[in-house]
Amino acid sequence: MNEKLKEKNKEALTSVLPIAGIVLLLSVSFVPMEIGTFMMFMVGALLLIVGMGFFQLGAEMAMTPLGQGIGAQMMKHKKVALSVLMAFLMGALITIAEPDLQVLSNQVEAIPNKVLIYTVAVGVGVFAAIAVVRVLYSLNLARMLTVLYSMLFLLTLFTPREFLAVAFDAGGV
């Protein structure tokens, strides 16, 4: 397990280091930080790396085998509709429980919290179901992304401007 933790911490380091470097470069060149703020940033970055390492290790040890077991059981039944429904439900339910989405919904006053949470959850569930269909039928990913992103950008033409930033941010959450 020690080697796995080192591996996960190295992955976290490669994720956090470029962003931390950019922030530090900007703070040195454009907006100087006080020494206390700088130290808090450095300690925060270090704790973020360690925390991400432990989180990724825990996810790999606990969630990956669970997901593989569920997927194997679903594929034994060979019922496409059941697999698609399960993917939708898992995507939606996991999204509803997502803490970042809870925080985002509290920050957006224009949309009631539950409406935002359930809308994002349904969207994630739909795309999880589409992902299962894509895998089951070996559909071309590039073609699917082109069509779906084209639809997304077309929908932005009919969306009020005040909702666009929230819509894209909620997708990232």
SSE layout and pairing:
Elements lengths: L1 H28 L5 H43 L2 H17 L2 H9 L5 H24 L4 H16 L4 H12 L1
Protein described:
This protein has 7 helices and no strands. It is mainly α and 173 residues long. The two termini are 30 Å apart.
- Oligomerization category of the chains in this entry: single chain
Order of helices and strands: HHHHHHH
User: If you compute it from the alpha carbons, what radius of gyration comes out, rounded to the nearest whole angstrom?
Assistant: 20 Å
Shape: globular
Which parts are unreliable, with pLDDT below 50 for 5 consecutive residues or more?
none
How many helical elements? 7
**Share in β-strands:** under 5%
Structural class: mainly alpha
Beta-strand segment tally? 0
The N- and C-terminal alpha carbons lie at a distance of 30 Å
Main β sheet profile = none
- Indicate the percent of residues in helices: over 70%
Task: Note the main attributes of this structure.
173 residues, mainly alpha, 7 helices
